[in-house]
From TrEMBL:
GO biological process: amino sugar biosynthetic process; carbohydrate metabolic process; fructose 6-phosphate metabolic process; protein N-linked glycosylation; UDP-N-acetylglucosamine metabolic process
Main localisation: cytoplasm
Protein name from the UniProt record: Glutamine--fructose-6-phosphate aminotransferase [isomerizing]
Source species taxonomy: Bacteria, Pseudomonadati, Bacteroidota, Cytophagia, Cytophagales
Residue span relative to the full protein: 248 to 613 of 613
Reactions catalysed: D-fructose 6-phosphate + L-glutamine = D-glucosamine 6-phosphate + L-glutamate
Catalytic machinery residues: K361
Cell compartment(s), UniProt: Cytoplasm
Domain SIS residue range list: 43-182, 215-356
Listed GO MF terms: carbohydrate derivative binding; glutamine-fructose-6-phosphate transaminase (isomerizing) activity
Length: 366
């Protein structure tokens, strides 16, 4: 059942080239600019003409929602808000007839997300679902949606569901951009081509496993971790920190790198490992100076960089090279080493990576 792997989590991490391919299957043909989600048709016009979109989700699915916010705003130019489902439902949100909600949930059974959907539905909103489990409560409660087709995710820590969600939401963003003509034909084709190549890049990133296992050895006894990223890699920082805390029980915080100087920098000393997701994008120079700020305070920096990067390796303690892709799709690649890092650290600490304490796969209580 674990397909030769010791744990479901590792199996599911390694399934990602296939699960992302499954999420893409039949939904895009880059060469002729085709992008389509078959499950969204009756309400497609409502979505395309949305004045704003509200995304509701919890945990890792909420992180996927943050990536989607950046993608939809950049390419389709529709304002997006991302809300924790639990906060949304208890704060009398402004939702009116015809408003657009996207609910993201792996299990499709998360009580808070389901309740947020019911609230919005009660006010006449149109709800789109991005779920993994077919026929789940959330899939049934939504008007339309797109499955991520990741297959069963057994490990409690979500891995392939995250990349499946980001993949489907990227398709959604590009589909909206196409309909709204907010991208040129060439821009669209180029993005689709890059998205199409993501499974190979993830495959390449998985080859980092042995290297990351080695790095993990040096951090088995760490008590805290900081994860920093900017732009599209900011949600990845949050996700990396969540993965580490839930399965290794090491306290970890994710931050937008520029926020560090507004507080967390006080924590940095030689005992503090800082994972910086610093792939080459338009905030590269800025993140380089964030790395220098950490090093000036003798923090231990583990940098995730784009392969061939010449500047960062000279400044940091550990370098993890990932293949390059468009900034918008980098989370699909840069999250892989972070999943592996948390897996190895947790395993070396003797933790049950598939069933961490106090956590359940579906959180069906409020
Ligand atoms: C993280 C994790 C949780 C879930 C959250 C939402 O690894 O497993 O944070 O992401 O409980 O669950 P779904 O996506 O099933 O609604």
């Amino acid at each position: 059942e674990k397909g030769g792997y010791d744990y479901f989590m590792l199996k599911e991490i390694f399934e990602q080239p296939k699960s992302i391919r499954d999420a893409l299957r039949g939904r895009l043909i880059a060469a002729n600019g085709h992008v389509n989600l078959g499950g969204i048709h009756k309400y497609l016009d409502n979505l395309v003409n949305a004045k704003r979109i509200v995304i509701v989700a919890c945990g890792t699915s909420w992180h996927a929602g943050l990536v989607a916010e950046y993608i939809i705003e950049e390419f389709a130019r529709i304002p997006v808000e991302v809300e924790y489902a639990s906060e949304f439902r208890y704060r009398n949100p402004i939702i009116e007839e015809g408003d657009i909600i996207i609910a993201i949930s792996q299990s499709g059974e998360t009580a808070d997300t389901l309740a947020a959907i019911e609230l919005a539905k009660g006010r006449g909103a149109i709800i789109f679902g991005v779920c993994n489990v077919v026929g789940s409560s959330i899939a049934r409660a939504t008007h339309e949606g797109a499955y991520i087709h990741a297959g069963p995710e057994i490990g409690v820590a979500s891995t392939k569901a995250f990349t499946g969600q980001v993949t489907v939401l990227a398709l959604l963003g590009l589909m909206l951009a196409k309909e709204r003509k907010t991208l040129s034909e060439n821009q669209l084709k180029d993005l689709l081509r890059q998205l199409e190549r993501i499974p190979q890049k993830v495959e390449q990133a998985l080859k980092l496993n042995a290297q990351i296992e080695k790095i993990a050895k040096d951090f088995v006894d760490a008590r805290n971790f900081l994860y920093l990223g900017r732009g599209y890699n900011f949600p990845v920082a949050l996700e990396g920190a969540l993965k580490l805390k839930e399965i290794s029980y090491i306290h970890a915080e994710g931050y937008p790198a520029a926020e560090m100087k507004h507080g967390p920098i006080a924590l940095i000393d030689e005992e503090m490992p800082v994972v910086v997701i610093a792939t080459r994008d338009n905030s590269y120079d800025k993140i380089l100076s964030n790395i220098e700020e950490v090093k000036a305070r003798r923090g231990k920096v583990i940098a995730v960089v784009t392969e061939g990067d010449a500047a960062i390796p000279k400044k940091v303690d550990y370098v993890i090279e990932v293949p390059s892709t468009h900034d918008a799709f980098m989370p699909l690649v840069s999250v892989i080493p972070l999943q592996l890092l948390s897996y190895h650290v947790a395993l070396m600490r003797g933790c049950n990576v598939d069933q961490p304490r106090n956590l359940a796969k579906s959180v069906t209580v409020e």
